[in-house]
Batch of 2 targets.
Target 1
Amino acid sequence: EEELPLLQNGGRKDYIIIYYDRAHIYIFLFLLEYLVETEYLSVDPYMRPYVRDLPLGTTMIGSQVAKIVESKNPSFPVGKKIVGNLGWRTHTIIDPKTEDLFFKQKPYLLPDIDELPSSLGLGMLGMPGNTAYFGLLEICKPKSGETIVISGAAGAVGSHVGQIAKNLGLNVIGICGSDEKCKWLTEEMGFDFAINYKTMPVAARLREVAPQGVDCYFDNVGGDISGIVMYQMNLFGRVAVCGSISSYDADTSSLPKCAILQPALVTNQLKMEGFIVKRWSDRWNEGIMQNLQWIREGKLRYRETVTKGFENMFDAFIGMMRGDNIGKAIVQV
Ligand code: NDP
């Protein structure tokens, strides 16, 4: 069996597959490309540090949900939707053999979720949802009755982590940046307590709401908040370091000023582990299908902050970095 590039249609590739045995040669021509039209684009915190390495003139990176509008590929029929890291663009011809250079991931079909918005493919049923699912279960290893603190709690990942933790029987405390977000977390998302880090003394408030100490910390923000939480952790606590948005603007060429964490780690014998969700790419579908089941069973609720218009991508991105979003920040093209 061989696979050869056959045709160059203005830079587009089709493929020929040749099978042969002693008596026969079988030649199959596969025209695999398909054309997609973008419906929703994602704005995510990782873009801030990662774009520094992109040469000027490169298409901005980012994932999207797109509808297949033309297809030569039976596995990707017209009308289905895909999730792909295709960058900030409205139309893309996809050669399914090509993985994106940045994430090394191929576009994949969104499961049929007719009763739900397809934009969930960028949130709860996509990368942030899998980050919450695998990061919480595999790194924090939460147990019923324990106390978890989540920073960045009212965002895409944080609000998802808190709900899974609550379903598992934990005492859930969120830290976020506005009273409106705190109210949403406690009144609608099932969090036990929420702390507004912009207006409340986080250390004192955390001691009040978690006098029993903290067993798990799901860290989305890093910096001073994380230092405060880690000094209130119990023996053998677990810290999942998911992100550090408070330092994405920092100049890391010299040693940045940071909280001294080692005494907390040593004294409380904490386990602190960073992760990137790609670690579970071989279990990607498991995360998506489990989160879908929980949404359908009413065990997970979602919220999106939707900006309309491709031309407003930049404002949506800056708004998310500033904290304007509740739940997942997306752009409807
Ligand atoms: P969010 O939806 O949580 O949006 C970002 C939020 O960060 C803002 O809404 C804002 O909320 C908060 N924020 C901004 N600046 C600060 C600051 N200086 N201090 C504290 N909070 C701040 O984004 P995501 O849910 O998509 O991502 C959350 C975190 O998870 C990020 O750090 C991201 O990089 C990380 N991540 C990591 C992955 C991995 O594989 N490890 C995968 C996906 C995400 P507020 O109003 O509360 O300030």
Note: The mean pLDDT is 91.
Target 2
Amino acid sequence: MNFSKFGQKFTQPTGISQLMDDLGDALKSDQPINMLGGGNPARIDAVNEVFLETYRALGNDDANNTNELNSTALTSIGNYSNPQGDAAFIDALVGFFNRHYDWNLSADNVALTNGSQNAFFYLFNLFGGAFNDVNNETVDKSILLPLAPEYIGYSDVHVEGQHFAAVLPHIDTVTHDGEEGFFKYRVDFEALENLPALIEGRIGAICCSRPTNPTGNVLTDEEMSRLSDIAKRYDVPLIIDNAYGMPFPNIIYSDAHLTWDDNTILCFSLSKIGLPGVRTGIIVAAPEVIAAVSALNAVVNLSPTRFGAAIATPLLQDDRIKQLSDNEIKPFYQQQATTAVRLLKEAMGDYPMMIHKPEGAIFLWLWFKDLQITTDELYEILKKKGTLIVPSQHFFPGVDVTQYPHAHECIRMSIAADEQTLIDGIKVIGEVVRALYNGK
Ligand code: PLP
């Protein structure tokens, strides 16, 4: 079959396709697999009970006082929404955000997408790629990632080529709960502000995930405010990927605040509260951006999926989504992080392993300094032993990883698995890594 250039670009093997294949295979496999590799959220019973109850109620909520054929479930699956997304959900989101933040939003500030991955496909192609400048000359603009490593799913979304510029981090040694053996990435603002692409007008947007996938880093309020100032100075939007952030799922343990203004594009998702299958992403932005996203939705999807919207609407209206996030989801992952850190320290505490300070998200990021093989090779060894993690080199879109050894020395492990899987998986990682450091 002859595919176009577009087809060839999107069918070549990518980091994200490898990750999704491994995840799918592990779920289908009849062999026991220690699944520490994927981005699937955890099963949290208290949260799932609320989803199930809401789901059941949608089928017989008798919305129009007639019968269940008029229930929200059937009205939402039996009709397209307009391309901006389900109107009742958008109204509930506007009410929710205005209740909790002084953003003064209207429905013109919110659009829905089929998962936030879909939003990044739109946004990175809207703000990265070929532009016409004032002289009608073509300028190639990139998405600036102020702090590499970043989310693997950004890497391949550009329709043509890859348009990323990334800034390598400052690596600070820090303590965590009074213990040594941790580090934290910080934005290198000097490198960022001196980046030729930024100064010369070849950046179309700045984007960061906060908390960051893969590291669990949370950029500080001060870092965010400096990024926001830089974005305004260069007249480009600041895109904040809030997939793990506040107010839902609120998997964030450091002291951080969320701000929004007209130059900020905030991306939310229902996935990490435990609903990845409903494919619901939310964009909060200036009306011009919302209109562009709606136009793209019309072409690509006709209208975004409505089922997630139907389930989440009542949870936003009475703030249950926030209570679940604060009282169930966040404490669950914080406990998982504590358990995983303890197990890792027991397994490899005497070796040169460092852990990125766990500040949020559903991962730990481990640094095996001076390991004599790359973590791509480590990934293959661990996979043969039935333990899946993700090697670090895929998390550096915009970085020439051949020139950056650190990009081959880390792994991402999910902490969403049950405790036994954490115990078994970390045991295998420990055995392999200790043997490598011991030169065996
Ligand atoms: N952004 C980040 C940082 C993620 O980790 C993910 C998924 O893992 C996404 C965006 C995309 O999520 P979804 O398309 O399920 O909303």
Note: The first strand starts at residue 34 and ends at 35.
